[in-house]
Amino acid sequence: MGDISYAPLIEDMVWSYSRVKAFYDCPYRWYLKYICKLHGKDMFFSDYGSFVHKLIELYYRGEKTQSQLCDMYLQEFKSRVKGHAPGQKVFANYFKSGLNYLRNFTPFPYNMIAVEKWVDFSMDGIPFIGYIDFLGEKDGDLYVVDNKSKTLKPRSTRLKPTKTDEELDDYLRQLYIYSVAVEQELGKKPKYLCFNCFREQFLIEEPFQEKAYAEAKRWLSESVAEITKETDFRPDIEYFRCTYLCEMNGHCEYYKLSQKKR
Known about the structure:
Blueprint: H1 7-11, H2 17-25, H3 27-35, H4 44-60, H5 66-80, H6 88-103, E1 111-123, E2 126-138, E3 141-148, H7 163-186, E4 192-197, E5 202-207, H8 210-229, H9 239-244, H10 253-261
Parallel strand pairs: 3-4
Antiparallel strand pairs: 1-2, 2-3, 4-5
């Protein structure tokens, strides 16, 4: 790969947050998925998140009641969540926490503008697409909500950011990028960026910060430029991520070799 430039192909791409993030997770994963266009396999965590996202969408579209969401969850979990969990304890924990969320379902405290809103916009010449899980309004202010199965913690009050604060900022980057589309379409920026941590049943509301907004836009531009110049696409092997998060592991010779060595 080192002698081949994929820049012409990459320059024609339409970008999404997941496409950029996949490169930083593992450049070789990105190469297999977006250059070779290989089909990935079902993965437990992504299947699970997609299923609960869909149920939340059905509720807000008025297609399912709360009790119907619970019924659908129980009836279709096995067929919708096909990936292999790290163990029975993890499987049971995720299954039970999802069911508890739906049984205690509480609508967001905002008026709905859109659910699973498709965004298609350009920033600094970079074509970008994605879905905003929920866009709401309260007292004239806009709220962007992202449904998260991952455990996140609200921001600490410490002067020096903690590791969980830094993790929160990493995930907020996606919502700041989506805010570009919100501003272009509605003429104003969101007031809050929010995470619906449904497995723990709490909502994180982060005030919109202009500095973080500018940094997110800069990160996107610099990331696309970096990926465009990449020629090596070296693998980043880490057992848990490769085994349970990377849908390309069935095509990855580096992962297969690492398994033989275990």
